[in-house]
Amino acid sequence: MKERYQNQIELLQGTLDMLILQTLQWGPRHGYGLSQSIRTNSGEILKVDTGSLYPALHRLEKQKLIG
Q: Quick check: 41 and 23 in contact, CB under 8 A?
């Protein structure tokens, strides 16, 4: 059960990472701008809060996918 939960977390993190990277293709943005772009471009369906966004940005920076 714990492994399944961990797999779901990794899937969600990967999805958020891809959303962030896709959004950054349109130009550089700070955290709030990223959150707003994701929200606007999803037709207000996806709302990324800072508690998820900033850890994802740190994860992407650590992987050298963003600078």
A: yes
Q: What share of the chain is helix, strand, coil (3-state, %, to 5)?
A: 70, 0, 30
pLDDT digits (tens, 9 = 90+) for 28-61: 888 999 999 999 999 999 999 889 999 999 999 9
Instruction: Return the amino acid letter for 37.
Output: S
For 29, residues 6+ apart whose C-beta sits below 8 A from its C-beta are: 23, 37
**Token pair in block for residue 37:** 């772009």
Q: Model-level pTM? A: 0.79
CB atoms within 10 A of CB 8: 10
